[in-house]
Amino acid sequence: MAVDATERSRRTSALATDLGRLLRTAEREHAALVNDVLGAVPGKIRGYRILVVAAQSAERQNHIGRRLGIDRTVLTYLIDDLETAELVRRVPDPTDRRAHLIMITGHGRSVVCRLAERVAEVDGHFLAALGPAEQIQFQAMVRRLATT
Question: Domain HTH marR-type: where (predicted)?
């Protein structure tokens, strides 16, 4: 069954206005650009995000997973790899002996500081189609959508 030009146009238009698809496409493109600058960071963008969280403060592994939307099994493997690379370490949570806190190491802190500059450059490149005021506004709107 052939699809006529009107139907093809309608389908194309529906894809062009599908917000979820547009956001996911933009996120995939951004992640690919960030992954290119992360070099040998275990887990690439997900590993980098774990390092960013750990650099802010020691946090329980399960809290990091929820905060970043990473499945707990996948998170365990990512943290194993980050720990092997001596970027983070697991320490017992003093308030719950069943839990572990993920702490960034000195090496991990220096890596995340260096990479944060490179990721910021990628962000600037990624948002270059927008003017400076639009970039600030876009980031504020996305942040608001992501936290409500």
Answer: 16-147
Report the largest interatomic distance among the alpha carbons of the chain, rounded to a whole angstrom.
Answer: 66
Average pLDDT of the chain?
91
Phi, then psi, of 113 in degrees rounded to 5:
-65, -45
Interval 119-140 mean pLDDT: 95
- Domains of the chain in sequence order: 21-146 (1.10.10.10)
Rounded percentage of the chain residues whose pLDDT exceeds 90: 82
And the tokens for 93?
């949570």
CA distance 100 to 60: 6
Model pLDDT, residue 17:
78
- DSSP run (H or E) holding 124: helix 106-126
